[in-house]
UniProtKB/TrEMBL annotation:
One term of GO molecular function: glutathione-disulfide reductase (NADPH) activity
Record organism: Hortaea werneckii (Black yeast)
GO cellular-component term (any): cytosol
The protein's name in its UniProt record: Glutathione reductase
EC number annotated for this UniProt entry: 1.8.1.7
Domain FAD/NAD(P)-binding: start-end pairs: 11-82
Domain Pyridine nucleotide-disulphide oxidoreductase dimerisation: 103-215
One Gene Ontology term from the biological process aspect of the record: cellular response to oxidative stress
Family under the similarity heading: Belongs to the class-I pyridine nucleotide-disulfide oxidoreductase family.
Keywords per UniProt: Disulfide bond, FAD, Flavoprotein, Oxidoreductase, Redox-active center
Described function: Catalyzes the reduction of glutathione disulfide (GSSG) to reduced glutathione (GSH). Constitutes the major mechanism to maintain a high GSH:GSSG ratio in the cytosol.
Cofactor section: FAD
EC primary class: oxidoreductase
Classification lineage: Eukaryota, Fungi, Dikarya, Ascomycota, Pezizomycotina
Pfam families, A to Z: Pyr_redox_2, Pyr_redox_dim
Amino acid sequence: MKKLHYKDSNGEGTMEIDTLLWAIGRSPELEKLNLDVTKVEKNEKGHIKTDEYQNTNVPHIYALGDVCDRGFELTPVAIAAGRKLSDRLFGGQADAHLDYSNIPSVVFSHPVVGSIGLTEPEARQKYGDDQIKIYNSSFTAMYYSMMEPEDKGPTSYKLICAGNEEKVVGMHILGTGSDEILQGFGVAIKMGATKADFDRCVAIHPTSAEELVTMK
């Protein structure tokens, strides 16, 4: 065990830890672009401010990917945004732009963590407590059935549903295979699936993903 001394807005203290993960985010490298002479606006973290069409505040200067302030520092997001911008500028599609809502993302940790849509606090703030219903399931995946108990990893799924129709506005999953599972369910959530839509899908057994269509 190691001792970690920390200091934050609530004071300071010491705790015993095994491992420290330093995950403070990334800063965009814009210095060499000399953007100051263009008057392009940036936010407090140094990201370039853009609207939904990737426009900056300066005409004919656009920003996308990790340098812009849309909140998704992911390669597929940058590619998709670039293609939409190209369609708008050169493809005759005047309204082409990337929809940044319900973009799935995964942390390839052990176990894998996947997420799409709103978190529970975000959903409660947007829709109100009385409009939110949460479904949870935690279990041991079949993948670990022949392993010793100390080698088994956790699996936990969470659905966040809003309104009387219980539209799925957030899904957060942890466990082996979560990356592959999320890609498929991401399509359904992007299309506006409800909890009833999930329930109508016959489960594939034995899988971990079947928990998402059998939650009560």
